[in-house]
Amino acid sequence: MRRFLRGALGSAGGGCVLRWLGVKVCRRSVLVVVLVWLVSWLFLNSLVFVHRNMFSDFCTDDKSKQILQRVCNDYHQGVLTGDLCEDLCVSGQVEYKRCLYYENGKKVMAANWRGVPVVLKSKLENFSSYEALALLDYQDAAGGAGGEEELSPLDVIFYATLEIKNSLGLETGTNLTLPRLWGQRLKEKERTYSRAELASLWALLQQEEYTFLRVLQDLTHHVAKILGSCGHFYAVEFLAAGHAWDQHIFSLEELSLNPSPSPWSRRERRLTARDMVPRVALSFLEMVEHFENDFAHRLHLCDIKPENFAIRKDLTVVAIDVDMAFFEPKMRDILEQNCSSDNDCNFFDCVSKCDKIKNRCGSNRKNSNLQVICEKIFRSWFSPTLLGEKAGFPLQVELQRAVQECGEMDSGEDTGRRRAVRQQLRGLLMELILEDAGSQEVQERKRHVHTALNF
């Protein structure tokens, strides 16, 4: 009997233990399942996040063609227009070549327009992503349902001018040349503008780079030229950009230049890459002077690197990416920020000083366009490595010293010294060009004499 009771109790106790262990095991299993699900959820969401933020802007030909097809669909529906649209969407005279890059929503593609290489650009992918022109909504409300009253050219001039000045950071009363020129062109057309034309113009004006290039191309030849547009996309002349890995920065060997015939030969003299460097450097100096002196306000370049410049076949330096270019009023607003040290006052290549008492960055730029160009471009061009056997020649040594002084120059220094450094650079570059030309003339003469003796 006792054995039976102990067996029964033992069996009952063992069952309880098993049930308790079972509950514990079940809880652990549920916890493991929950943790696995949570980790999987986090992993999948991370993949989606990475895909949206990194691979959504992955440059592909298929996606680029789809984007342009949507532009053409909007054109056929009368939503947008432009002088490029007919060739892009109807006659097929715009031939898509390849996708160049996508960056932060910006789409850049290479194409041929009637046989001429161009670059198609837009800050945003879709036309609908741009802010609509409020005047169009007002026009619809004022005209009632189906109202087709159109805006006058003066209305277009007024609002386009305001948008340009706001985009560039200029005061409304600033005497800017281009809006008056642009306005005159609009007046000469002597007609009103359709909704598609106004909407397309408004989308273009919301793109800072388009506005800059459109404003500056009539005032200087040192920016890429806008050739046409369709809706929110605009075509810019195709120019090969510089590369940091190229010792000459630009692919100078690919340029076929015949500046002048040699007096000692019937053949025209072709410049070598080494001959081109001082000529391109002179064009950089000219560009700097244009940007500092020839506009209502000084123009600051805050992202100076080879990729943001190109050269035409005549060796003119061209700014092809001006997303980080600002006129003086906007530059002051950008620089004047809270700070605890000078490092807080560095806005890419535009630098100011921190006032430790006010904990505020100064509104005046400490360095200059020329100083950064000397440091980032001229220093490598005129280094002993690139100059080779000529590095020890007096003219080259003096040029290296001038570049060194230019790279260390503070924009706060007196105007006279800055002008003297710039003039010294220009004079030395001119001497270098004349010296190279003279040596080539001597070589041509020797070759001419040699061939004459061996008739």
Automatic annotation (TrEMBL):
Swiss-Prot/TrEMBL keywords: Disulfide bond, Endoplasmic reticulum, Membrane, Signal-anchor, Transmembrane, Transmembrane helix
Membrane association type: Single-pass type II membrane protein
Pfam families given in the database record: PIP49_C, PIP49_N
Residues of the FAM69 N-terminal domain: 26-184
Primary location group: endoplasmic reticulum
Positions of transmembrane segments: 29-50
Similarity-based family: Belongs to the DIPK family.
Full protein name: Protein FAM69C
Source organism: Triplophysa tibetana
Source lineage: Eukaryota, Metazoa, Chordata, Craniata, Vertebrata
